[in-house]
Amino acid sequence: AQSVSQHNHHVILSEAASLELGCNYSYGGTVNLFWYVQYPGQHLQLLLKYFSGDPLVKGIKGFEAEFIKSKFSFNLRKPSVQWSDTAEYFCAVIPPGGGADGLTFGKGTHLIIQP
Amino acid sequence: KAGVTQTPRYLIKTRGQQVTLSCSPISGHRSVSWYQQTPGQGLQFLFEYFSETQRNKGNFPGRFSGRQFSNSRSEMNVSTLELGDSALYLCASSPAGTANYGYTFGSGTRLTVV
Fold first, then answer.
1. Which of A92, B47, B62, B109 could form a disulfide with B57 if both were Cys (CB 3.0 to 4.6 A apart)?
2. B2 touching A (Cβ < 8 Å)
3. SS3 B25
4. Gap between the terminal Cα atoms of chain B
């Protein structure tokens, strides 16, 4: 079974600061990787996903992530954050064919952007 | 294009009762998955249905069950509710039974057991 570790549970940044949220996974084979965001009181929204190809993927709202296979990592980045980026961020993985465990999520990172 | 619709949005039930939650996937999507979200355990996989068949089931007791209808709508049932079942229950839909299309989540049903 796969597992996901998000290193930072709480992150506080000022507006315009750069962001990097760490995500590492454990699985013996190929995985599909996702970052989801959950704004206060709202549902999970897909930020970006990686299935194959270019390991640098760009998502919505200026977010990007880089898949480093050798490090089993899929870190989320944004060069300049805004107050509206305050939210909970979840990294998730699943084998390409689906899996007995469904999407496996990390515990999430609560990001607070101070104006 | 309508998103994933979950009803009801909020529920308050008493310990020992049972509850049924509903999920209507995006039109044309045939796969529906259910997740439980709690502050302590985070997001945990309950089960997945594809073409009316349960494909996978997470590590939850038998009190948690579900089904999928021919129109791809899904229901989840929890019997003999316990206080620990209080959570946000999320439904996700996908076009097919593989993970190669991504998953779209609904707004969830917040269940409170008192």
1. B47
2. no
3. coil
4. 37
Q: Is B58 on the interface with A (CB under 8 A)?
A: yes
Question: Residues 62 to 91 of B: which have CB under 8 A from any A CB?
Answer: 90
A49 in B contact zone (CB under 8 Å): yes
Q: Are the Cβ atoms of B42 and A103 closer than 8 angstroms?
A: no
The tens-digit pLDDT sequence of chain A (115 residues) is 789 999 889 999 999 999 999 999 998 888 999 999 999 888 899 999 999 999 999 999 999 999 999 999 999 999 999 999 999 999 999 988 777 888 999 999 999 999 8
Q: How many CB atoms lie within 10 A of CB A66?
A: 16
| Contacts for B6 with CB less than 8 Å, ≥ 6 apart | B21, B22, B23, B24, B89, B90, B91, B106, B107, B108, B109
